[in-house]
Specification:
Rossmann fold; Dihydrodipicolinate Reductase, domain 2; 14 strands
């Protein structure tokens, strides 16, 4: 299968490795900075004659890839995805799928019209720990889910934002919730039943005065099934990343997935005693080299199979939209000082421009 990567920055190594692990035919790399794509060719021992582009539209026309991964700044995800879809390409879109609900809807609709697949790159769904928890949810081992919580306690410094000036801007990124925390936000919504009635949120910029968006977000969620959710996400932790943790509490079960990126199971308690908690913890213990984890290769394998067998990807465009919608609902509640009812029809990060001042950008 012919594959191309658009965007060769911070997350791109995970995409290159996933493409290699799944034996894709890497036909092109594209980045507006030629040195970025050149670096990836050298680092991953790719053929020296792989075409390198600075214009993705030219790449689409000349190389006609079947599958494209989009790993650019977030604000460009939707526009690039639409062009890829119009060219007949299946797409893997790094999180978030878009920065507005209108754009997310356009991507989903256009893909249906063109008969191609859209995958939102929420790779943590493929963690061993998360797959084990999901299995318990689907087998109803928790009984009635009461509430769940997501805690993302990470650190980002000035150097991180200075390396890419789009980070922390409303037009191209959003803040901690949209960029760093959206993976765990996606997991919480997915595990708790997806459907949400109401969201109450607070956001603030406590430490990173040089960005436009929030570095702290806290939210309370009322799910349609009667359960509740709590989100706490920040990039203010000193001096380095502390944890990404997911708790689920049910009538008959309690689970905690922790580690730096929900990659281990720390608590596993069920009334049915169907498995040994110590064995589960051992089986699901992963120590990835960074917060991106090991999920990209599995996500790629699923997308390839979805294309070949004409089925939806495990993490489809609608899943990406739901994660986006929840973050935007928190932003809207925080900005208005009121609870927000779901579903949201229209909302975008740019709606909140100027909320904390303009930073240095």
């Amino acid at each position: 299968m012919k594959y191309a990567l658009i965007g060769c920055g911070r997350i791109s190594p995970n995409h290159v490795v996933a493409a290699q692990n799944n034996h894709l035919d890497i036909v092109a790399l594209c980045d507006i900075e030629p040195k970025n794509s050149k670096d990836k060719i050298l680092k991953f021992d790719l053929p020296k004659d792989i075409p390198q582009y600075t214009d993705y539209r030219e790449m689409l026309e000349r190389e006609a890839p079947e599958l494209v991964a989009i790993a650019t700044e977030s604000g460009k995800h939707a526009a690039i995805a639409l062009d890829c879809i119009d060219a007949g390409c299946n797409v893997i879109i790094e999180k978030p799928i878009a920065l507005s609900l209108e754009d997310a809807d356009a991507v989903i609709m256009r893909a249906k019209e063109k008969g191609v697949k859209v995958c939102a790159c929420h790779q943590n769904r493929f963690n061993k720990s998360i797959q084990k928890i999901r299995e318990a949810v689907e087998k109803e081992r928790f009984g009635r889910l009461l509430y769940g919580t997501a805690h993302i306690r990470w650190a980002r410094d000035y150097e991180y934002y200075a390396r890419a000036k789009w980070r922390g801007t409303w037009e191209q990124d959003g803040g901690a919730l949209m960029n760093q925390c959206i993976h765990d936000i996606d997991l919480l919504r997915w595990m708790m039943g997806d459907e949400i009635d109401e969201v109450v949120g607070f956001t603030d910029r406590l430490k990173h005065e040089y960005i436009q968006a929030e570095d702290l977000g806290i939210a309370l969620i009322k799910f349609t099934n009667g359960a509740y959710g709590i989100i706490e996400g920040t990039t203010d932790i000193f001096p380095k990343n502390l944890e990404e943790t997911l708790y689920l509490f049910g009538e008959k079960g309690t689970v905690k997935a922790g580690g730096e990126a929900v990659n281990i199971i720390e608590e596993w308690r069920f009334s049915d005693y169907l498995d040994d908690p110590n064995e589960v913890k051992k089986e699901c213990h992963e120590l990835p080299p960074n917060v991106y984890g090991f999920g990209h290769s599995k996500l790629y394998a699923d997308v390839i199979d979805a294309i070949q067998n004409n089925r939806p990807p495990y993490v489809d465009g609608e899943a990406g939209r739901r994660a986006l919608e929840l973050v935007l609902a928190i932003y809207q509640s925080a900005a208005t000082g009121q609870s927000v009812k779901l579903p949201l029809k229209k909302c975008a990060t740019v709606d909140f421009k100027g909320r904390f001042g303009n930073g240095i950008y």
